[in-house]
Design a protein that fits this description.
The chain is mainly α. It is 76% helix and 0% strand. It is built from 22 helices and no strands. Helix 2 packs across helix 10, helix 17 runs antiparallel to helix 18 and helix 17 runs antiparallel to helix 21. The protein is globular, with a radius of gyration of 24 Å.
Length: 520
Amino acid sequence: MSAPGSKPVAASQTPMHGGQLAITALVLALGTFMQVLDTTIANVSLPTIAGNLGVSSDQGTWVITAFAVANGIGVPLTGWLMGRYGVVRTFVFSIFAFTVASLLCGIAWSLTSLIFFRVLQGGVSGPMIPGSQALLISIFPPQKRGTALGIWSITTLVAPICGPILGGYISDNFHWGWIFLINVPVGLLVAFLCWTNLKDRETPTRKLPIDVVGLSLLVIWVGALQIMLDTGKDADWFASTQIVILAVITTAGFAAFLIWELTEKNPVVDLSLFKSRNFALGTLAFCLGYAVFFANNLLMPLWLQTQVGYTATWAGLVAAPTGVVAVLLTPLAAKMMNRYDARIIATVAFIAFGASFLMRANFTNQASFLDFTLPLLVQGIAMATFFLAMITILLDGVPPQRIPLASGLSNFTRITAGGFAASIVTTVWDRREALHQSRLADQTTIFTPGLSHTLQGLHGFGLSDLAGKAAVTRTMVNQAYLLAADDIFWASGWICLVLIGTVWLCKRAISGGGTNAAAD
């Protein structure tokens, strides 16, 4: 189901040495970098993309959710593809297909075409991260496997730093399409060098059955649910026949999917893994924690650009401290995982997440750049510990031969949860804004002395009565969006703190050197 399933075979190959090892490790890391980069690079560019294509910022979030959900659905196929065609062929083809899809995204002429190409990009990128990890491990000597995993881990943390900054800079200075087009030369180079250096190290292949019905049902119910979440707000939710039909398809498809997967001999998603307490509760906490993080990672730059007046570049710089702190602390966190109960490390992660979100819940109209970055510095602590701890917990007690399946299933649920959360957060934000705006409007009438004094002051600056009222209305809308964002930050903080209880319902788990944690 994911790359770890191919590690025992790949790792038996003769290790590389010297310049060939350095070049191959670099291009494999670049493969991971591209995929992770594309999960964040578009976040700060949404207002620019939406404006250029003539759609609202809410509709622009489909660019994020389409990629996330398609990537999540593509993950369960990874193990089958690598077993059927080999790790090297699958990885190189995935890189090449991702490059072609990136080119199509860069030249997209409408929101519909961009979403379609992002679905394609997300779907073909499923094998990229597990494939790069498996191949990295195979080219290093066994005693230096930690070095291989370190390169892989650092790459996955550096990419989120570069994504918002690079996406913001490109959006402010060039056409937004270049956030995707920059993948083309890198992807072609990675595909060429990987095939040249690794084609003689292909893993054995065998004919494997594939659960076509299960995969089809998965695509149907996940796709219907995502479309419902993305279009529900504009369609007035269940007042719309379309939304009702999508809800019925989602419910029926999910029920059929559960029944089929529980009775199928070779299921695409092995649901029997949820019989393990650690896997079930660990995956629940992992998905909810990641969903909260992913949603806020989308909301923050969107709010900064549409309401605070930040450019895409500055919105990206606000997010940079998270990755910097995570990169610096990850080696320490990995060492701690070998000595302490993973539940303790997970608690540290959720406390850091909760503190970061609750700090943001105190934002005001006078907040400075430093005020915005401080909570994200705290979030960096969570990023350095969250993934390592949660994966160690949920994989604890899983038999070695089933770890690939468990790792793939946790990846699928995590990525899909993030896509759903991205759709939900924009709807909640707009609804809370409408509520706060109505309350502010009740306090801002022609009979309110404060409004009269404000209008008089604006008259002194040369504004007419109508222009003055328009300025007051705009300020009121900004304040309403601020209060709505604060509400979401507040709720996110408490959700993370509550999830600590879920973590402690799991059994004690200690990493055996961090291998399982990194395998995801």
